[in-house]
Amino acid sequence: MENLTNFINFEQLLEYATFVPMLVLLVQLVKNPLDKLTTKIFKTTLHTMYLVFFLCFVLRLVILILNGEDITGQLIMTTFANSVFISTSGIGLYSVIKNDTQK
After folding, report:
1. Are 83 and 57 in contact (CB under 8 A)?
2. Which of 6, 55, 90, 94 has the highest CB neighbour number within 10 Å of its CB?
3. Residue whose C-alpha is closest to residue 86's, from 62, 63, 46, 59
């Protein structure tokens, strides 16, 4: 029962609360140059949702590796699952910021 009372702790909330805005700022930095590049090469742009997920997955994996985690199948699968969760929040925040700047 301890796992249910300790399901999300304060450190995890702080990490999440700082990672999502950092991810959104990174997407804003990379989105326009990447759109120009993909338009030149493929005549279309990459959907922002996929870019957010990809950046989130790579960034989380790099952070975990830099923290000394061993690369295992479980690490990759949990990073993938966490990236889905985090990127969903990130794309929501990115949409809010993008809509506010367009008004």
Report:
1. yes
2. 90
3. 59
